[in-house]
Recover the amino acids of this structure.
């Protein structure tokens, strides 16, 4: 083996170690969050954590059900608002718009992804919350407000991944359908959507992950009351808000309970990631 | 019952109009946010606002220390994340061809990209702030941010390296260079604009990050003096100003700076991307 070959082999090894950095970070995060959060879950019982209705950390009552429901409801709301708009934009930009128009609108939508979540939350506070309060009544800080803002926030994710998967459909499909006399919209509905289905589903799942994981915007507009919401206008607290609101001053078992909240959030996210990963890799094959 | 079916041509018209309206609405929301923030924030901005430290919890004065805090945090995060991210990208593109190892690495990066920032915040808090005793500091915040940025840098660098034409490598090999020489002297220099784009995008992300930095870098308003000082970032400052109603004008001013930086960053990446794409097409 020459010196150069040895040198190259060393570099290869070094790069392999570096390449594992992302995986190691993931493992370390998993170990720390689970290590910090699970002992208290087992101490007070998994059932009381997952199904408990009350959250009184000072009295050592840690029920996360209202927050779990809160996260699910707000995420569902975000999808109901964000997915139709997102898919419409994606279809419009890939199939109906001129190249020029696309080159203007696409960067604008990417800009939407760059706006900090605190700014979205702030817009919710100064525009949307007062609007809801005056139009529909209630405190304004509500499931509805959070759903709308989160719906806007997931748009870039849904749009960009849907565009990718629509563009990945072989042009022959599109041309064939048009040649048979189908209209553009029929082509979209009957050919492109089925062909791009897994990518579109992946985009929705990733959008779901963004909505469920969003913290700052939710804290600012959801109202944060620990109660299971009974209407769209009721305030709600999500898992993420629960962590961020109390982390600043929590200590002892209270802090551990917040980590337990993190564990539940983490598990949900990992399931979503794995599903999204599986659907999009099926597409690749 | 009358079947709900429209004539295909009519259906096409309806669908096309609906898609137009939806897209227009999306763009309108975006423009509204930007115009709203800038129209209220720009009048607050002045040289003083940018160069003076906050006074009285942010009621008066400017945002100088939070700008410095944001820059320090971002710089530290990039110093850690860039070599790791670019190294990973080189390994994935130049040194392996699929296989289980690559799949594990890709899966790790994709999962990491999906983890919400509050989880990073929790993790950074427990590892850097308490276990390693860095306290609320630029060091803790920067390292936490570095982990968050890693997937973005890996992905963008990978794409940049992949788009370097194979012929470049073949020529380099045929001249007798080793793999590493080819990578460092031929592939990387050609991929630099793409890699830089990823780094700039990460800057945007770290400027806007709040949940992960508030629990790791803390919220001190003093000008940071070392990596062990706690420092508030602009985004955290804006959050606190707005949430506690300390000063709405200053909140709008800070938001305007945030939005302007994001606008600048997007314009810059866009320009770079276009140049990069043109070069290899």
């Amino acid at each position: 083996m020459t010196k150069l070959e040895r040198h190259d082999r060393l570099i290869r090894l070094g790069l392999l170690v570096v390449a594992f950095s992302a995986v190691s970070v993931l493992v370390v995060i998993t170990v720390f969050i689970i290590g910090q959060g699970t002992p208290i879950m087992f101490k007070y019982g998994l059932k009381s954590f997952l199904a408990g209705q009350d959250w009184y950390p000072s009295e050592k009552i840690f029920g996360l059900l209202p927050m779990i429901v809160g996260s699910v409801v707000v995420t569902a709301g975000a999808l109901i608002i964000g997915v139709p708009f997102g898919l419409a934009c994606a279809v419009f930009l890939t199939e109906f718009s001129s190249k020029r128009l696309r080159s203007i609108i696409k960067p604008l939508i990417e800009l939407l992804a760059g706006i900090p979540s605190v700014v979205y939350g702030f817009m919710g506070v100064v525009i949307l919350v007062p609007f809801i309060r005056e139009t529909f009544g209630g405190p304004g800080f509500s499931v509805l407000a959070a759903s709308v803002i989160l719906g806007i926030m997931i748009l870039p994710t849904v749009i960009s991944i849907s565009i990718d998967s629509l563009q990945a459909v072989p042009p022959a499909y599109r041309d064939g359908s048009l040649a048979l006399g189908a209209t553009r919209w029929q082509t979209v509905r009957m050919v492109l959507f089925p062909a791009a289905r897994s990518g579109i589903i992946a985009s929705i799942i990733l959008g779901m992950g963004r909505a469920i994981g969003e913290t700052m915007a939710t804290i600012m507009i959801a109202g944060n009351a620990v109660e299971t919401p009974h209407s769209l206008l009721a305030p709600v607290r999500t898992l993420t808000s629960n962590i961020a609101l109390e982390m600043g001053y929590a200590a002892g078992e209270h802090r551990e309970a917040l980590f337990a909240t993190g564990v539940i959030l983490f598990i949900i996210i990992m399931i979503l990631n794995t599903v999204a990963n599986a659907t999009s890799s099926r597409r690749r094959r | 019952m009358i079947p709900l079916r429209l004539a295909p041509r009519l259906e096409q018209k309806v669908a096309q109009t609906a898609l137009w309206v939806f897209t227009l609405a999306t763009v309108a929301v975006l423009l509204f946010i930007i115009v709203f923030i800038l129209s209220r924030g720009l009048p607050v901005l002045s040289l003083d606002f940018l160069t003076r430290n906050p006074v009285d919890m942010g009621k008066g004065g400017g945002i100088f220390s939070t700008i410095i805090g944001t820059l320090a945090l971002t710089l530290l995060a990039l110093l850690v994340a860039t070599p790791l991210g670019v190294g990973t990208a080189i390994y994935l593109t130049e040194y392996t061809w699929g296989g289980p190892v690559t799949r594990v690495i890709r899966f790790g990066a994709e999962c990491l990209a999906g983890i919400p920032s509050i989880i990073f915040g929790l993790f950074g808090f427990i590892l850097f702030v308490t276990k390693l005793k860095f306290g609320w500091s630029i060091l803790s915040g920067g390292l936490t941010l570095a982990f968050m940025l890693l997937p973005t840098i890996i992905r963008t660098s990978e794409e940049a390296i992949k788009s370097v034409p194979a012929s470049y490598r073949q020529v380099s090999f045929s001249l007798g260079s080793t793999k590493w020489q080819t990578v460092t002297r031929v592939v990387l220099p050609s991929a630099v604009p793409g890699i830089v784009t990823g780094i700039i995008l990460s800057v945007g992300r770290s400027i806007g990050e709040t949940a992960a930095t508030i629990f790791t870098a803390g919220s001190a308003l003093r000008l940071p003096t070392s990596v062990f000082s706690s420092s508030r970032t602009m985004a955290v400052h804006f959050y606190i100003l707005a949430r506690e109603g300390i000063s709405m004008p200053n909140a709008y001013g800070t938001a305007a700076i945030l939005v302007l930086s994001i606008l600048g960053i997007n314009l810059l990446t866009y320009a770079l991307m276009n140049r990069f794409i043109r070069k290899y097409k």
